[in-house]
User: Fold this.
Amino acid sequence: MKTETNNAPPPARDKLLFTPGPLTTSHSVKAAMLHDAGSWHFEFNAVVDSIRERLLKLGGVSREQGYEVVLLQGSGTFGVEAVFQTCVPNDGKVLVLSNGAYGERMIQMLKHARIAHVALRTGEDAPSDPAALDQALAADPSISHVAAVHCETTTGVLNPIDELGIVTHRHGRTYIVDAMSSFGALPIDFAACHIDFLISSANKCIESVPGFSFVICRRDVLMSSQGIARSLSLDLIAQLTGFEKNGQFRYTPPTHAILAFAQALDELDTEGGPAARNARYTRNHETLVTGMRALGFHPYLKPAVQSCIITSFLFPTDPEFDFNTFYRRLSDHGYLIYPGKISQADTFRIGSIGRIFEADIHALLAAIQQTVNELGILVETPTPLPTREAEANFN
Ligand SMILES: *Cc1c(COP(=O)(O)O)cnc(C)c1O
Assistant:
C-alpha cells in the first residue's frame, strides 16, 4: 500500500523574474491580497491613508515641508502622463531629457496631449547632460517644465537628477522626475534635487504587485495648476481632492494591490529601509556582472554610469546566438530574463531588483552557463561601441 510520506514534491514555485517590474514578490506580499476589501470602507481607507503617510516618509519629506502624495490607478506610465495632463498649462513647454525608451515615452505623451515640447537627447549609454540643459534653458525662456528619468530602465543608466534639478531650479522652471525604477532603493533628496513632481509605482523597488502609481510633489506647485487638467481620470488635483474629502480613490481602487503594498512597505522596513535594499541590489548587481564577465558576456554600459537596478548585456558575437532560444532555455530552468529595448546595440537585460538574493543570482549564472554550453554558443569579446555625442534636438 502506498502511504503518504514527506518526500512529496515541493510546492511549485513561480519562475524567478530577473525583470524590472513586475518582479518577484515575497509570498507574504502575494498572500496579503487574499482578501476582499470594501473600497469605501473605513478600514480600507485607513490603509490608503497610512500608505500615503509612509510614502512621504520614505521620500524623506513631509506635509509640513509642503509636500503631498497622490495615488493613481494604473501602471507607472499613467502617473507620468497624469503629471503632464494636470500641470502643464496650454502655453507651457516641456523639455524632456531622453536617453532611452522612457524618455521617448514622455515625448509620446506630450505629442498626444498636444503640449509643446523639446527633446534633449544623449546616447543610450550616456547620462543626461546638465551643461546642455543649462544652455537649452538659457536659449528658450518659453520652456516651463523639465522632465528627467532617474534610472533609465531601458539600459540601466543612471541620470544625475541632482545636477539637472539644480540647473532647472536656477532657471526657475518646474522639475518632473520619473523615479519609477529607483524610488525606495536609490537615495533621492527632494530638496537638494529641487524636485517638484516625482513619479514612481508599486511594482518596482517597493517590491509589490502592479496596480497603481504615486506622485510625490510640492503641494503649492500642484495646486497652482487648478483648471489646467486635460483629462478627467488623470487629474491629480481632483484625485487629491477625493482623498482629502473622504479618504477614497475617485474611481474603483486597486484594492488588492493596496493591501499588498502595505505589506511590501512593512517588509521594506524590516529589511532596514532603502539603504539596506540598495545594498542588496548592489550585491545582486555586482555578483551578476562578475559572473557574467567570467562567462564571457559584456555589460553594455560603462560601470561609472551603470545603476544597480538592471544591467544590459551585449549579445555574444557568435552568429549562432539567438535570444529567443536562449530565453526559452533559461525559462525551462525557471529563470526569466528580459529582452533588450534599445536601438543602438543588440542587448538583453537582467534585473537585480525584486525579492531576489545573491544565491538566486548564482543559480541564474549556473543556468546561463549550462545554457551556453548546451547551445554551444561561443562567447567572446565584442568590439566596444562608439559613444554618441550629446545631441540637442529642437523640434
Ligand atoms: C517601469 C517604468 C515606467 C512605467 O512603466 P509601466 O509599464 O507603465 O509601469 C516608467 N519609467 C521607468 C523609468 C520605468 O522603469
About this structure: The longest helix spans residues 273-294. The chain has two domains: 28-269, 273-375. The first strand starts at residue 16 and ends at 17. The pocket of pyridoxal-5'-phosphate is lined by residues 20-21, 75-77, 102, 149, 153, 178, 180-181, 201 (CB under 6 Å).
